[in-house]
Amino acid sequence: RPPSAIKMVQTQQTYWATIESDIETHLKKSIPIRHPVSVFDPMHYLTFAAPRTTAPALCIAACEVVGGDRAQAMAAAAAIHLVHAAAFTHKNIPLTDRPRPEPIEHKFNPNIELLTGDGIMPFGLELVAESMSLGLNNPDRVLRVITEISQAAGSRGVVEGQFKEMDISLSEIDVGLIEYVCKKKEGELHSCAAACGAILGGGNEEEIENLRRYGLYAGMVQGILNGVGSKNRKGLQEMVEKLKVLALKEVECFKGNGKFDGILAWFESELCNV
Amino acid sequence: RPPSAIKMVQTQQTYWATIESDIETHLKKSIPIRHPVSVFDPMHYLTFAAPRTTAPALCIAACEVVGGDRAQAMAAAAAIHLVHAAAFTHKNIPLTDRPRPEPIEHKFNPNIELLTGDGIMPFGLELVAESMSLGLNNPDRVLRVITEISQAAGSRGVVEGQFKEMDISLSEIDVGLIEYVCKKKEGELHSCAAACGAILGGGNEEEIENLRRYGLYAGMVQGILNGVGSKNRKGLQEMVEKLKVLALKEVECFKGNGKFDGILAWFESELCNV
To answer: Which class would CATH give A9-272?
Structure first.
């Protein structure tokens, strides 16, 4: 790479690092350790125990690429993280009929983990609804985002993906099923995140739908690379390449836009160098 | 009772019966049996498997007593029921550290019950957000109601009550703890329901707060009578009588209002004849 390209990549890495650090700061401020400690201590811990997901940062980037302010999408980005944290918390509760319990460290009892996950999810939507009082967004956009996040979190989104995930067998690879689960889990989360960012940033309907599809494809790639599938299996490797092409096509319309380089750099570092 | 009073009670019983039947119709229409059946079949079943709670009907009555239309509060009433149904579903999942599992019939595996509860909760908030499109409410009221329901469902409401409930011992009665749990569970649910109904019906701030406190006291009485405590214990019997007096004081301001008799009849049939 020529020196200017290296500099561009470094600048964009800083861009993403500031987004992620801003979201973390916002979340830490939103969930203070307060009374009752028996409730808020596990809530705080389990919010940050979930593995990193890029969906919240994509929400902010989508807001900025359509010309919005970071602050407008901050509560939605936090809510997207909380949907992820609640799903992760519940996914790891030891149940009698779980197909294969994953060995993770449990700091709290199953009942506490169950209840905390139940508390984390509505808390995210509360943050979005309350963000209205900051005067940054209009109520119609906020209500639309609440509908988007509720649907993505619920039984036509992440929850449906978790249902279907139970059918995945370790012994044989069912490419179609893995694609479906990745679409509903990481795909839906990133798709919703990007659409919400675009809505809150004041994007037009075309931009919102472009970013929604970008998030869907990019999220599916993440799902395949990081989790459900294995990128080395032939069928999956092909799917990843196909999804990457589809994703980039959706954001071409933002070329020349100052924030477009950020989306591109994210794409390269998250989806190509894994 | 003189014949006119008997007639009044009958009329009011019809009033409550129509509210409850309207809510059920609305819920059944909102959760169709659709694809994927593996997700929506348990969602449908578990939504209606929870024992009856009077909170959703109180939401409608509060809306009407401040002069609102039933349709304005219907989505919120459904969401209140779904918060209750999700909490009930999760409460009955067999976990290793549950203090005393209650013997109930499980139609689904624990993992399905967990995921279905996770899907039911955001679905309620989705219904409220989507109710905007019917043109019955203004967005500020709807956002306020979403905040109210998220808080009541979450870690400062029902979830906190469930945390504290684990500390209740069967062998000795801790009146203060039972009061706290009833306040956070049935109390918070009824309090939120009544406040949301009043907000959506266009009540003023004083009416909203009166109905919120009425719901709190009336819900606590229900919690003590039906569940956590036993009304025959001396300390609890006194508390019930005290709460009933407090509750009625909050709705005195609606005397002379056509819908007040409904609230009064509900109070008598639900809280006094148990």
So the answer is: mainly alpha
Tokens of A106: 């449990």
Tell me how close the Cα of B115 comes to any Cα of chain A, in angstroms. Answer: 6
B204-250 pLDDT, tens per residue?
999 999 999 999 999 999 888 876 555 566 778 888 899 999 999 99
Provide the shortest C-alpha distance from residue B235 to chain A (in Å).
25
Q: Tell me the Cα Rg of chain B.
A: 18
Alpha-carbon distance A255 to B215, whole Å? 55
Structure tokens at A54: 């890029």
Nearest chain B residue (CA) to A117:
B118
User: How confident is chain A (274 residues) per 10-residue block, as mean pLDDT?
Assistant: 67 86 93 75 91 93 95 97 94 74 76 91 92 86 95 84 78 80 91 97 97 95 75 76 93 87 80 65
**Angle, CA of B184, B190 and B193, to the nearest 5°:** 120
Q: Tell me how crowded residue A9 is: count the other CB atoms within 10 A of its CB.
A: 16
Token duo for residue A117: 């996950």
3-state SS, A157-222, equals CHHHHHHHHCCCCCCCCCHHHHHHHHHHHHHHHHHHHHHHHHHHCCCCHHHHHHHHHHHHHHHHHH
Instruction: Decide if A94 touches B, using CB distance below 8 A.
Output: yes
Q: What are phi and psi of B85, to 5 degrees?
A: -65, -40
Whether the CB-CB separation of A194 and A209 falls below 8 Å is answered with: no
Query: From residue A229, how far is each of A23, A59, A162, A164, A168 by CA, in Å?
Result: 28, 25, 14, 14, 10
**Cα–Cα distance, A143 to A124 (Å, whole number):** 13
Q: What single letter denotes the amino acid at residue B129?
A: A
CB pair distance less than 8 Å for B122 and A118:
no
Dihedral angle sign, alpha carbons of residues A182, A50, A160, A31: negative
| Contact call for residues B124 and B27 (beta carbons, < 8 A) | no
Strands, E, within B126-272: which ranges? none
Q: Chain B contact for A147, CB < 8 A?
A: yes
Which chain A residues are closer than 8 Å to B126 by Cβ? Answer: 146-147, 150-151, 154
Q: Treating both helix axes as pointing N-terminal to C-terminal, what angle do A110-130 and B110-130 enclose, rounded to 10 degrees?
A: 10
CA dist., res. A202 & res. B271, Å (int) = 50
Question: Are A122 and B36 inside 8 Å of each other by CB?
Answer: no
- What is the fold, at CATH topology level, of the domain defined by B8-96+103-272? Farnesyl Diphosphate Synthase (1.10.600)
Q: What is the pLDDT of residues B46-86, one digit of tens each?
A: 999 988 899 999 999 999 999 999 999 999 999 999 999 99
